[in-house]
Design brief:
Helices cover 27% and strands 19% of the residues. By secondary structure, the protein is α+β, with helices and mostly antiparallel strands. The chain has a four-stranded antiparallel sheet, with helices on one face. A two-stranded antiparallel ribbon has the order 4-5. The longest helix is centred in the C-terminal third of the chain and has 29 residues. The termini are far apart.
């Protein structure tokens, strides 16, 4: 995040300054099903509806029909051992309506095959580990001069 406070000019310093806005948008998967033309964002608290519309049209060339915003309260959390209460920051949620011919589908980043593979790979590696350890014990079971501690 940039800041609007810039260092004071001193003689000899270059005048190269980049003015960046303090605005940001984060695409969020909605908790409840919404029509295909409605997209949900978390945004900066300082952004207005007009700022959100300009942000999406100027930067992403996204046609915006309507913007609704609401402020969601942050959660209250009690620290388990210290006993004091901590409140998370509030955040603004923007519901952006696109034209009827535009339909937004939230991307699926993980397929079901990818979600199941880590468990299967873990079970497979565990079986391989057990078999390699058993072969290690079998190899070292009958060594002369070594006590027989490797019995199963």
């Amino acid at each position: 995040m940039s800041t609007r406070w810039y260092p004071i000019y001193q003689k000899g310093n270059p005048q190269l300054r980049i003015f960046l806005p303090n605005f940001w948008l984060k695409l969020v998967k909605p908790e409840v099903n919404q029509p295909g033309c409605v997209v949900q964002f978390h945004c900066s608290m300082e952004m207005t509806k007009h700022d959100i519309t300009n942000y999406l049209t100027k930067i992403y060339n996204l046609p915006v029909v309507h913007v609704r915003t609401r402020i969601a309260m942050g959660e209250f959390k009690k620290e388990p051992f210290k006993g004091y209460i901590h409140k998370d920051d509030d955040f603004k949620i923007a519901y952006v309506t696109l034209p009827k011919d535009h339909k937004f589908v939230f991307p699926t980043l993980f397929t079901n095959d990818m979600e199941d593979d880590p468990l299967k790979d873990g079970e497979k590696s565990l079986r391989e580990l057990k078999s390699s350890f058993k072969s290690y014990l079998d190899r070292n079971k009958e060594r002369p001069g070594v006590p027989n501690w490797f019995t199963i």
